[in-house]
Amino acid sequence: MGARAARRRPRGPGPRRARAPGAAPVTDRARGGVGGHFGASHVKFYTTVGARCGIADYSAALLPALCAHVAVETVVLRPNRLNPFALALDARRLSAADVAHVQHTYSFFGVDQLTYTLAWRLLRAAIRAPLVITAHTVRPPGPARYDGGLGAALANAVGAPAWHDVETFRRAEAVIVHASLHRDRLLARGVSPDRCVVVAPPVPPRVLVDAAAVKTFRDRYRLGTRPVVGVFGFVERSKRFALVLDALAELPRADAPVLLVAGGPRLTEHDEVLAGVRADAARAGLADRLVVTGYLPPADVPVALETMDVVVVPYATEDSVSYSLHVALAQGRPVVATALAPLCELQQRGGCLALVQPDDARDLAKTLGTLLDDPGARGRLAQAARAYARASSADVAARRTVEVYAHAREVRR
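-> structure tokens emitted (413 positions)
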């Protein structure tokens, strides 16, 4: 089926045109100058959709802004799809465009090194349009060969170590990363410098929340009038919840703050992470000050963030950039974050974080104590967060992304 016919299909398993909430469907003649310096452009955007996925949330923030500049259709990415015929069909859909834009993290493609490599070799061979990859995760370099049994031998035979490290990215016309550290990692492995660009994640628009909604939320979770220190997002191993609990245990406060975990496990295997958080809270004598909401529907997320006096981002990995952090910045919340390279870079751009040393509960306790005791300090951080949100809006990210599309087409010529 041709691209024009595919665009006429109102519904079904094929690609669907992205649009802002309440807006008319995007067409090649949409307002906002579709085309412009980019030509009569048509982009297929390969991403997860729906709830419980940070990359789906990222895409949902970026797509409406992209639609002001180019014609975009979403091709739904279903993680861990191992059916080669389904992958080939996705590749065919992506090829029916001027640019194919793929949202990449390793867990989306296959269940191990072998199946990942088979999936990506198929996709790369079948996608005919200029390819742009957004690398949401960039790991440190892996081994040149995998050790193990038959699975490792087969993975080595199809070049899995190289595809994990560089080939997926080197064979794209352009790669978008979210931090300079990630660009440096890819360039060190052989990705061309002129094909790898840092584009900061889009900060979504702020959602206005009234005081009545905050009070209702507090009442629902029995937060009372205590100060609230919050961690927002999925309960997973990339967050150091034990560090936050140790820090709260050190705060000598009569009105000891509550730790509000606004989220829950995304995967079944993360249930044990939440069990560990509860056990750590009990050992620290904080069981009565730990509140876990479980998964929150999107409408409740801004209310939960507005309930928090301070948001903590206790990240333990430099391999990705927290999108939940950007949602907190969108709401203008005071944020304390671990001083890892991607977050230090964000701080250099916006001055909107209070950074603490990794694995240092005392440093975190000192910073939290200062902020909880000083409304003025919280207000300055909140003001800086709002300024960063304006400077790194979805429209800013969309304009930079469109420039990458144009470059990808030039590379292909």
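The CA atoms of residues 214 and 303 lie 6 Å apart.
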